[in-house]
Amino acid sequence: MITVKEINKHYGTHHVLKNISLEIEKGEVVVIIGPSGSGKSTFLRCLNYLEQIQDGVIEIEGEPIGLLQQGPKKAEMAQKELNAMREKVGMVFQNFNLFPHKSVLENVILAPLTLGRMKRKESIEVAKELLKKVGLAEKAEAYPDNLSGGQKQRVAIARALAMKPHIMLFDEPTSALDPELVGEVLAVMKELAAEGMTMIIVTHEMGFAKEVADRVVVMDDGRIIEDGPPSIIFSTPRSERTKSFLSKVLAH
User: Fold this and answer.
1) What pLDDT is recorded for position 198?
2) Most buried in the list 69, 76, 147, 178, measured by CB within 10 Å?
3) Which residue intervals of 48-205 are DSSP H helices?
4) pLDDT tier at 32 (50, 70, 90 boundaries)?
5) Are 18 and 54 contacting, i.e. CB atoms less than 8 angstroms apart?
6) Residue 172, strand partner residues
7) Residue pair 233/226 in contact by the 8 Å Cβ criterion
8) How high does pLDDT run on average in the chain?
9) Regarding predicted confidence, which is higher, 78 or 152?
10) What DSSP character marks residue 169?
11) Would you say 69 and 75 are in contact if contact means Cβ atoms under 8 Å apart?
């Protein structure tokens, strides 16, 4: 489903991702944890080409997207090809990114309409079903300013799902929420996991990772330092850095 081979990412002289390799199978839920600044969010953004890597290969369903800077011809990806790849990969960010001047329903239908994936009638039907799925059917005509943070994030999830992606990326989806609103967002993500959606999640919610993840990937200083089932990572991690990190986050 997703193959990452020795990718590197630099911001000027700052080496953010260092020879990252990872394989993710269809239907897997992979949770990425690690200290702030370890490269977790950057790695996620590279997976749908919001960030360009300097070298290495990323393949989504067998299609490479990671060699775009190697040679003048490979350096150019047609916009329609890039859009087609992104349609397979939905992403939910920390801060919702909803259009405040559009209703909840309009936010959800915007991408399918703009990219010509659906006619308006079909897109509205799909959007209403998705809003029902995330528990917000009654908020279709509301505007983002009238929603709680948890409701906004659930709308953002519905919006990403409207493109019928094969893979969902979540970049710390609960970090901007008040603690009492976290559960309602995690409940939607648990349902997606139970339905077999391939998911890659950057989060600090360790309880959620233990419950939902098939695998936990630990990053530190731009590298993957540990990768395994949550039962192993949280009980008997091999890396001293993982032990140190978990001792701090699980103490709170």
Assistant:
1) 96
2) 147
3) 79-88, 104-114, 120-133, 149-161, 179-194
4) very high
5) no
6) none
7) yes
8) 90
9) 152
10) E
11) yes
Question: Which of 211-244 are b and which e, b meaning 16 or more Cβ less than 10 Å from the residue's Cβ?
Answer: ebbebbbbbbebebbbbbebeebbeebeeebbee
Cα 6 to chain center, whole Å?
20
List the domains of the chain with CATH numbers. 2-250 (3.40.50.300)
pLDDT for the residue 76? 54
Backbone angles phi, psi at 17, to 5 degrees: -115, 130
Measured CA to CA, the distance from residue 226 to residue 230 in angstroms comes to 11
Q: In what order do the strands lie in the sheet with 14-24?
A: 14-24, 2-11, 55-60, 63-64
For the chain, percent helix, then strand, then coil, each to nearest 5? Answer: 40, 25, 35
Question: For residue 214, what are its two tokens?
Answer: 């098939």
Q: From 73, 57, 50, select the one nearest 8 (Cα to Cα).
A: 57
Name the residue type at position 73: K
Report CA Rg, the chain: 18
pTM, full prediction: 0.91
Q: What is the Cα–Cα distance from 212 to 195, expressed in whole angstroms?
A: 12
Q: Which two tokens stand for residue 216?
A: 């936990």
User: Is the pLDDT confidence value at 67 over 80?
Assistant: no
pLDDT of residue 124 exceeding 60, the answer is yes
Q: Find, among 233, 236, 240, 188, the residue nearest to 206 by Cα.
A: 233
Q: Name the percent of the chain lying above pLDDT 70.
A: 92
CA distance 186 to 174: 8
